[in-house]
């Protein structure tokens, strides 16, 4: 992740699954649509990912009641299978995700640059909630 003047926030979770499964569930659109939401009243009806440096990704996040939706996307800048992902979001913010093998478990550490519209704590809570949802989905499947 390139240094910038944005605030960087880190969220993490330890998933009770091997790194190959965690990597697959994190990156395959069929799985992304099952976990990429911060709360039960939201979902991800669409996801695409061209998992290579220079490849684009996009996930539609939407309120289940149809009242609001947005696309979350960007471009991968680093792809090291089962180890590291880095990408630049559509608004230029940087994200780095490490997948750390810990025996039969995998620690996921995600560092993202904040945006200026919402409080940092709110952003941290939202990204952590999505990561927690990923953990719950991955461990149950």
Automatic annotation (TrEMBL):
Residue ranges annotated for the Activator of Hsp90 ATPase homologue 1/2-like C-terminal domain, each copy included: 16-138
One matching Pfam family: AHSA1
Parts of the chain that traverse the membrane: none
Family classification: Belongs to the AHA1 family.
Protein name per its UniProtKB record: Activator of HSP90 ATPase
């Amino acid at each position: 992740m390139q240094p910038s003047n944005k605030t960087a926030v880190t969220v993490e979770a330890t998933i009770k699954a091997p790194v190959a499964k965690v990597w697959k569930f994190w990156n395959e659109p069929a799985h992304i649509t099952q976990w990429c939401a911060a709360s039960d009243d939201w979902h991800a009806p669409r996801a695409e990912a061209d998992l290579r440096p220079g490849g684009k990704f996009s996930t539609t996040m939407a309120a289940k009641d149809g009242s609001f939706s947005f696309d979350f996307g960007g471009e991968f800048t680093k792809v090291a299978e089962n180890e590291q992902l880095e990408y630049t979001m559509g608004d230029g913010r940087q994200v780095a995700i490490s997948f750390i093998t810990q025996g039969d478990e995998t620690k996921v550490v995600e560092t993202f640059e904040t945006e200026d519209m919402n409080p940092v704590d709110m952003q941290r809570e939202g990204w952590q909630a999505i990561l927690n949802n990923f953990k719950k989905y991955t461990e149950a499947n």
